[in-house]
Amino acid sequence: MLSVLLARARQNGTDGWESWDDAPDTPRVNGTPAATAAAVDDWRGDVQSLAASLRVGQSSFGSSDGSDWDSYYDEEKERCFLVGVQLKQQRSKHGYGVQESIEELGRLADTAGLEVVGSTYQMLDEVNPRTYIGSGKVQEIMSAVANTGATTVIFDDELSPGQLRNLEKALGESVRLCDRTALILDIFSQRAATREGKLQVELAQSEYQLPRLTRMWTHLERQSGSGQVKGMGETQIEVKGMGEKQIEVDRRLLKGRMARLRRDIEEVRTHRRTYRDRRAAAPIPVVALVGYTNAGKSTLLNTLTNAGVLAEDKLFATLDPTTRRVELAGGKAVLFTDTVGFIQKLPTQLVAAFRATLEEIQDASLLLHVVDVSHPNAPAQIDAVNRVLEELGVQNIPTLNVWNKVDACADPAVIRAVAARREQTVCISGLTGEGLEELLEKVSGKLQDSMVSVHVLVPYSQGELVDEIHRTGVVASAEFGGTGVELRAHVPLSLAQRLQPLRAQTAAAAEAAAANGAADDDEDEESLLDDGWSEEELALLEEEEAAAAAAAAGER
Ligand SMILES: Nc1nc2c(ncn2[C@@H]2O[C@H](COP(=O)(O)OP(=O)(O)OP(=O)(O)O)[C@@H](O)[C@H]2O)c(=O)[nH]1
Ligand SMILES: [Mg+2]
């Protein structure tokens, strides 16, 4: 249903074919013949302004058909040609189609500072184990490269070391080969800002390079000039020759470097863990913003908190988590954490590398799954994000679906109506501020759901606990008595556990205790129930305790 609505909401018609019957079998190679470009030289100014006006509101990656004159004349940038493959059995209803995936690859190339001059794709029953695509397609790419002046060919899927070698041989020395994984790794290495981020990316790059060392050599040797995608040759190893023996030496060097990187990462992580533990001791609930890259997570954090986080129309604008405090209605504080965006075909090395950074997500009390609901591929992006969340083992953390950029939808009213009918879904615009009040209300409600109710008597000598209950919980009543403050409140579980010694005795419980001759100091279920803990809360408490014990055992 959502996909139908989204299709209707599309502002720009995109794809050529919806079913396999419509799909062209051998798509034409797209490119800009040099001769044509020369012929239109005089029109250049007009075409450039036309191209610019067409691009308003879109990415700077204009068309995928190579008719991007603006870019054609950009002498500064490295020109690249994109190649995709659609496997017939892979085309699912919600999945990214090959054209959409190539368009996204184009945006990644743009982010990495490359100029896209053309693209092509092929539909296959299965990939060619030697060259990934068929030999006819390789020929087509060779002539497209000659026509467009491309110096780099980027494949939309990860190529095996053997496929890279064979394709490189076929395409010749003057063409640089790259795949989606190397491109994403390159963007990450350009953008990583913190020491931890940089170390993680370097480790991921090394893992990618290790089995491809021989081809990296040829790459490095040819790359003595300057190229803008340096991903594959980034690791600082001296390459002197090409003999097998030297390869072995370098493999060993690279492995040594990887071991050092792992140690350094562990050290940085230990520091961060200490910080997190400290934060956990003053339990302010953490709300993590997760979602597809470019969904608008940083914009939302900025609008909510003036965080000043870089938000831009680029993929992977954010790599390092930023955490900001937000006050909800009633003065309760929560921490909002912005995280790295996800993408379909996310390289496994990167999921693993960023697992540590993504611990921010694992610690969260609530996830906000931010979706660019104006994007034609929103359903596929939602699926891709859910898959990564599953991989990270956080699919059980309570989640609110945040449909962002409703202002950019062709028919916002329809989207709003659908969202209103769905559970746990809020429609917002991080840009205009629409829906943010409702969002914060829902956040507050969800957090309260995940809290337990307590009834405690806090002595005046422990006034700081009263502050903490007010700050992190929702207080139903507070009475100032002779010895302290009697509070009924909903608080986070960890605080509830610390408050257990201060449980207020109800009159009935006190009587029962007197009848038994002594207060029962066993924290058994009944006495907890007397203190106002519901059976459900007790079950929750037990569950959480068991989970915490299991997690602690796992860490050891
Ligand atoms: N029209 C519209 N544009 C938005 C909205 N929210 C964000 N954007 C735009 O979308 C682009 C991406 O926004 P970011 O906030 O950088 O997205 P992100 O999810 O942080 O992206 P990554 O850090 O790359 O994962 C920017 O150009 C924003 O201006 C919105 O509500 N409406
Ligand atoms: Mg961001």
Strand and helix map with partners:
Blueprint: H1 2-9, H2 34-39, H3 44-54, H4 69-72, E1 78-87, H5 98-111, E2 114-124, H6 135-148, E3 152-155, H7 161-171, E4 176-179, H8 180-191, H9 195-209, H10 213-222, H11 244-281, E5 286-291, H12 297-305, E6 322-327, E7 333-338, H13 348-353, H14 359-362, E8 366-372, H15 378-391, E9 399-404, H16 412-421, E10 425-427, H17 436-449, E11 452-459, H18 463-472, E12 474-480, E13 484-491, H19 493-499, H20 507-515, H21 525-530, H22 535-555
Parallel strand pairs: 1-2, 1-3, 3-4, 5-7, 5-8, 8-9, 9-10
Antiparallel strand pairs: 6-7, 11-13, 12-13
The structure holds guanosine-5'-triphosphate and magnesium ion.
Guanosine-5'-triphosphate binds at residues 291, 293-299, 311-313, 315-318, 341, 404-405, 407-408, 429-431.
How would you summarize this macromolecular structure in one to three sentences?
Residues 285-451 form the Hflx-type G domain. The protein is an alpha/beta fold and 556 residues long. It is 46% helix and 15% strand.
Structural description of this entry:
It comes from Chlorella sorokiniana (Freshwater green alga). Residues 285-451 form the Hflx-type G domain. Residues 511-536 are annotated as: Disordered. Its main location: cytoplasm. Mean pLDDT is 73; it is low at 1-73, 215-241 and 517-534. By secondary structure, the chain is α/β, with parallel strands linked by helices. The chain has 22 helices and 13 strands. The strands form 3 sheets. A 6-stranded mixed β-sheet has the order 6-7-5-8-9-10, with helices on both faces. Strands 2-1-3-4 form a 4-stranded parallel β-sheet, with helices on both faces. A 3-stranded antiparallel β-sheet has the order 11-13-12. The radius of gyration is 28 Å and the shape is elongated. The protein binds guanosine-5'-triphosphate (GTP) and magnesium ion. The site of magnesium ion (MG) has 6 residues, from helix 12.
